[in-house]
Amino acid sequence: MNQDEPFFSNSVPVLAIDGPSGSGKGTISRRVAQHLGWHYLDSGALYRAVGVSAMKQGIDLGDVQAVEACARRTQIRFADDAKGEARVWVNGEDVTDELRLETTGAAASAIASMAGVRAALVQMQHDFRTGPGLVADGRDMGTVIFPDAFCKVFLTASAEERARRRYKQLMQKGVSVNLDSLLGEIVARDERDASRPLSPLKPAADAVSIDTTGVAIDTVVAQVLALVEKSGLLPEAS
Length: 238
Ligand code: C5P
Hints:
Blueprint: E1 14-18, H1 25-36, E2 39-42, H2 43-56, H3 64-73, E3 76-80, E4 86-90, E5 93-94, H4 96-99, H5 102-111, H6 115-126, E6 134-138, H7 141-145, E7 151-156, H8 159-172, H9 179-195, E8 208-211, H10 217-231
Parallel strand pairs: 1-6, 1-7, 2-6, 7-8
Antiparallel strand pairs: 3-4, 4-5
Bound molecules: cytidine-5'-monophosphate.
């Protein structure tokens, strides 16, 4: 996003949940959104979708111009299938399973540092902001995409614990991985995400940080909901 462009806010409340991969953002954000009856934005899925789109078209991920052009023309659609499971389509193809692979995460992280890729995804993210509210999960939800979010949370966890969680998730999906190499990939991805000049992974100045190492998901969900309630900005109906 061009940082000089004026930011137009709207009155729909946003809860921004940022943090590194494996910090529990996805699961916690989904549960909080479900509890509140709000929409949910998995912004990482958009970067992953562009990465998958570029790879499927044989685009060199180091070719900035080609990847940025690909981001502008990639069609991304989120929808539930007949069984009510969330699926993601890229250019008409269901890529849900590929999207979760660690290689896709690494591709997403590589292209997420490109200004044209980030710019191509801004409007799509803002479009998720519809009533009664939005829980937005990512790296720059509270800092860049929704700086006026009424509540901002930054989730962390030790790299070892995050690698273990990712390992479990992938094994449950039948994807066989090596825990040590997963840890190496996660640390490398964090470093790249935190050190890039554009929208780096960092807590917003007004974010509340929660370390989820060794903490049960339900406990973190309850902590986040308590923060939302404490903000006093929840509309009456929620
Ligand atoms: O959250 P997830 O692991 O799906 O994100 C994949 C990659 O997409 C991250 O490593 C990061 O580089 C990028 N990303 C981003 N900004 C976001 C969400 C994800 O740069 N808001």
